[in-house]
Amino acid sequence: MGDEPIMATNDDASECKRGAVQLGYWTDNYIHYFVRHIEKKAPEINRGYFARVKGVDNFIQKFINRAGSNAQIVNLGAGFDTLYWRLKDEGVVISGYVELDFPTVTSKKCYMIKRHKPLLDRIYEQDGEVRFSSTDLHSGNFHCLGVDLRNIQQLKEKLHQAEIKFDKPTLFIAECVLVYIENNWVNRMLQWISTTFSTGLFINYEMCNINDTFGDIMLGNLRARGCTLAGIAQCKNLETQKNRFMENGFMGAKAWDMVQVYHSIEPSERNRIEKIEFLDEQELLIQLFQHYCICIGWLGNDFADFEIEI
């Protein structure tokens, strides 16, 4: 089966995001270019994605506010993520933005960018030149590159092609990515990042607290679809998530489960989205939130004070 089931999780997540956007949970003017097919999801799934997007965005905004136009973003396993275009709409100016994923995924994304003028125009605005290969896109400050993240040498080469600067503040984003990679390869990648970049932040959104019945059901569902979950050992709890960064050269790490993240979102925003769909089972939503987390690890001292405000 290989990596196909892992790549399929990108399609699932993108469909879930488009469905939630269509219902009004948050605004994304670009997701519909990448996803046509959507099925109605349960309200707790939509709220889960809302919390995920808002929670990750919170740290992205904090990072950009602190790092300014020197900021670089490296989105690991980016799939059909639309963050680059959303930041453009907000008028955010950064030094460079790199998306990395399996070549099969990036070739689809490059094709869609070529096909849809609004996507391509936003890249042209900044750079005036966009170069495509079958799996890669290069422009002045946006790059979408096919790579196997388990291959550190290849990862280095791709970041070199994207002209990433190791002395600039760099944000790494991984959403449900590391869990599919063997721990020794993740450790190697984190060690390389911590010894190569002088200042930065890593945001990891992933499963946690999986050693209970609810966790068993979650893992069973994924395994039934062929996802091997090679990195599941680090998803035991918040401590194992933090320790992964600490043991691989990061200066510090913090983690919050999604119950905490959800309650850190502005009350008015929570009230707004809670009116979109009636939620029958509050307990199921809480269980879902308890089994996912956001963990951050930092390099240098510039981002050590980042918190969520509960």
Automatic annotation (TrEMBL):
Keywords, A to Z, come to: Methyltransferase, S-adenosyl-L-methionine, Transferase
Q: Decide whether keyword Methyltransferase is in the record.
A: yes
The UniProt record gives the binding positions of S-adenosyl-L-methionine as R52, G77, D148, L149, E175
Instruction: List the InterPro entries hit by this protein, alphabetically.
Output: LCMT1, Ppm1/Ppm2/Tcmp, SAM-dependent_MTases_sf
Full protein name:
Leucine carboxyl methyltransferase 1
Q: Name one GO biological process term.
A: regulation of signal transduction
Q: Please list the GO terms describing molecular function.
A: protein C-terminal leucine carboxyl O-methyltransferase activity
Q: Which SUPFAM superfamilies match?
A: S-adenosyl-L-methionine-dependent methyltransferases
Function in brief: Methylates the carboxyl group of the C-terminal leucine residue of protein phosphatase 2A catalytic subunits to form alpha-leucine ester residues.
